[in-house]
Protein 1
Amino acid sequence: MLIPHDTRIALDTVVDLMNTAAQGDRPDALADLQGLHVFVRAHKISDVGVLDAADLRAVREVREKFAAVFSAPEARIAAP
């Protein structure tokens, strides 16, 4: 199955977002605004204005929602 370039970039970004969460000895890479800036620059996310605490909260909330989907025991639970 071929995955279009834009789709691959989006999926890679989601995987990288999930990998920002604290795990074991690795701290949360999105613990502060500096971490969010690093993530945005590393992924060359365009049209980003001034980032603030609300943006950080929103990105962390999205990460939590993805985590819930990926950890759901069944597909119908992941996509209600």
Protein 2
Amino acid sequence: MGEANRRKRLDSNYGNSLNIGCFIAASTSSDAHAVYLGIGRKGNRSLWYNLIAGTFENKGEKTMTSVKPTRTVRRGRLFPEIQWSEEKKAQWRAEREAFYQRCKPTFDRLKPELIKTHYNWYMAVEPDSGDYFIDKDDMVAGKIAHEKYPKAKLHVFRINETGVCGTI
């Protein structure tokens, strides 16, 4: 006897189509969602669906199909408690410009000869000692400089006519 014939003889529902259902529920009291998957015979709403749907209906919770998104639109700063005043911003810009002006003479002095041999390479300048470090990669130039001066603030120039990358 074949497998199909044996199953037909043992299971009266063998060969009847199955219903596969999915029930998605959302909780109104938390961010939790639940997905329930059930398999039932044709023609009847399975027990699992009645049980789950009844559970959520009794609590006043909704299925995912009826939930409306209530997303809060957030605009503004990531950390609104950290706000710089205009004076502090101006002071920071002035300090940055003063540091650039301390590094620029070293770059201007070496630029004509380095453009010939190292065009579009990078030069990290340490202004207090006047030392500079050159490499094809800006990160490597900074790393080499930080090995010698671990606590120093550096300025990195690109060795070209403007001293910067790209145009604005």
Protein 3
Amino acid sequence: MGYKGVSAISDQTKSPDTSAKSPALSVEANEYKQIASKHEPSRPVFKNCIRAFLVGGTICLIGQCIQQAFVSGFHMTQKDAASPTVAVLILASVILTCFGVYDKIAQFAGAGSAVPVTGFANSMCSAALEHRAEGLVLGVGANMFKLAGSVIVFGVVAAFIIGVIYACLGFGGYHL
């Protein structure tokens, strides 16, 4: 018996002809939806809502505590303490994102961690961390604003429209 070589081995490993359609594998779209819905795991909607409420509320409670610390410790008004409070919340969110803690909170809380300003900071920081190997400009700078760009544009446009409405109605000391 002689050596058959590579061509004999490759002939044995070739897959069968797949050009002919098998009638047993044909499934209609509605049938597929019914089968998929049977095997889809149920979602604990009520439990997810409670988690989102509790975590989102806790983040807001921490924000109120920080604001009260600025009011008491630095003798600021509520209005003056608002900006540094947001800055501290953003900084805390970025630090927690860098250590991977915020992602675990987000997995537990779902939308509860995404709604406050900390969720926006987390999305920006996560994108920056993910693309940092591509460089500062093309990696971090370009990809960080892909997700957040629409939010920023909406905020700027909404603020402009509200400013125009205030100016036309005579609020804020200036009117047309």
